[in-house]
Amino acid sequence: MLSSHHSEIQSAEMSLCRKKARTLCMIVMINIFICALAGMSWKLGHNKGNPKRVRLPFKRFWSRPIMSESFWNKEQQRLDVINNPLINLDLSGDSPIALPDWLNDTGPLDPCEVDYRVPRQILDYNTLPKQFQDFLLHMRCRAYPMRINQPHVCDEKPFLLLVVKSLMPHFDRRQAIRQTWGRAGLLASRTVATVFLLGNSSSVDNYPDLQDMLNHEAKLHKDLLQWDYRDTFFNLTLKEVLFLEWFSVHCPQAQYVLKGDDDVFVNTLRIVDFLKGLPEDKAKDLFIGDVIRNAGPHRNKKLKYFVPESVFVGQYPPYAGGGGYLFSGDLAIRLYNISKQVVMYPIDDVYTGMCLKKLGLVPDKHAGFRTFGIEEKYRGRPCIYRSLMLVHSLAPQEMLKIWPWIVNPELDCQ
After folding, report:
1. Residue pLDDT, tens place only, 253-270
2. According to the 3-state scheme, what is the secondary structure of the chain?
3. How distant, in Å, are the alpha carbons of 59, 88, 89, 96 from that of 92?
4. Res 64: pLDDT
5. How many CB atoms sit inside 10 A of residue 58's CB?
6. What dotted CATH number matches 146-407?
7. Could you tell me the residue ranges of all domains in the chain?
8. What is the rounded distance in angstroms from the CA atom of residue 392 to the CA atom of residue 390?
């Protein structure tokens, strides 16, 4: 009996071993099959010669995005979904992805109508500065008529286009720039052109009517670009977008763009020399300036750059200080195209950083850009300006004083 029982136990153990072996083989085979499928999927996804074979995810893989409570973030989420190429491709198929309900809350059909959603969705709207309120009500509008245009300013295909943000009353600043660093024509055997960007100075902001004087200035110098919108600090982003649109139509052949305020001093000679020696592989994505990193919105209402949490939450991408920066003409076109996918933000240099991030680019910091100025003890030293590209901020009289130091061949700065 014991022998028979022992034989039965051995038989059972052998049967169990065989089952384990079969199970192990099945697991190995399944793993090999999964790896083969993963390899095929990877290969299909990276087959550049036949992009039509790329498989889109099934509907169940898409999850509903969590809507932000902040107005700007919510608007950007909407744009991100609308401009997502995978979702757009799927929408053209037989089984479109169900979009979130909040995508239907798009406001007025005409983006240039007052956005009635703003006071309702931004709880502290009534406590914001009036100019900030104005920006938010018209944030979606990007179409404003031009009062003054210069469609032929780039006919000679400039190597460098100098673009200066200005205000209507700043006649003296514009004239000082024309007589110094913004002088159009040939410089170091390269063609340089100059334009000034302006909006409309309104009586609401306590400005006198200067339009006739501006029209005369435009006829005299042929370098003013003016749009019919309220020219305020919070609308500097609008000025940026309108310029990029103008550039894409009237000046796409310009190789480089230097953009700055009308109170900066620019060493145009040094910039031209820098660009002439730039390797071709670095020219296309060029964007340099005084780069700010790890910054975020100011929450102090007393500060100029105050943005409440009801409007925006999050950290800013790296961006170049708006006093002045240098970038390629090729990149200017791409910035214009991508700007359509980025909601207008009330701080223009941060907005440009957002557009660069969308393009997968980061601005490069250059020590020659001093958008926060230089120490007072160095401001009277001629050779300091020879070594820099851009200095902020200087009065017209200082520009007229400094420019001869730049062009004087007898000045020894060795």
Report:
1. 999 999 999 999 999 999
2. CHHHHHHHHHHHHHHHHHHHHHHHHHHHHHHHHHHHHHHHHHHHHCCCCCHHHCCCCCHHHCCCCCCCCCHHHHHHHHHHHHCCHHHHHHHCCCCCCCCCHHHHCCCCCCCCCCCCCHHHHCCCHHHCCHHHHHHHHCCCCCCCCEEECCCCCCCCCCCEEEEEECCCCCHHHHHHHHHCCCCCEEECCEEEEEEEEEEECCHHHCCCCCHHHHHHHHHHHCCEEEEEEECCHHHHHHHHHHHHHHHHHHCCCCCEEEEEECCEEECHHHHHHHHHCCCHHHHCCCEEEEEECCCCCECCCCCCCECCCCCCCCCCCCEEEEEEEEEEHHHHHHHHHHHCCCCCCCCHHHHHHHHHHHCCCCCEECCCEECCCCCHHHCCCHHHHHHCCEEECCCHHHHHHHHHHHHCCCCCCC
3. 13, 7, 5, 7
4. 54
5. 9
6. 3.90.550.50
7. 146-407
8. 7
pLDDT digits (tens, 9 = 90+) for 305-352: 999 999 999 999 999 998 999 999 999 999 999 999 999 999 999 999
pLDDT (tens digit per residue) in 387-402: 999 999 999 999 999 9
**Mean pLDDT calculated for residue range 364-371:** 95
Chain segment 61-109, per-residue pLDDT in tens: 445 556 788 999 999 998 998 888 776 544 445 555 555 665 666 778 8
Write the pLDDT tens digit of every residue in 33-45.
555 555 555 555 5
d(CA 306, CA 129): 10
